[in-house]
Design a protein that fits this description.
The chain is mainly beta and about 90 residues long. The protein contains one helix and four strands; from the N terminus they run ββββα. A hairpin with a 5-residue loop joins strand 2 and strand 3. The chain starts with a strand and ends with a helix.
Length: about 90
Amino acid sequence: LCIRDRFTVGGELAIRGQTHEVELEVTFNGVGRDPSGAERAGFHARTEFDRRDWGLTWNQALETGGILVGNTVRVDAEVQAVKETGATQAAA
């Protein structure tokens, strides 16, 4: 089964004691079975934010021009979720 759906997930990101809301763009990559027979769903999530919003302002000028650290932070995550079975629930 290969289904590609896109959706947005909202949440909070805390860095250095500051919390801000962020949104992740998520792509559902599909469902399949792993070698042990467990059902897995795959997702890719991405977001970008400005590090200065969390008070991360340190930087240094480069001799060649420009700055050492960019202000945009991009986060990409590949995530798998495993469907819990009756045997897994009993063991927990």
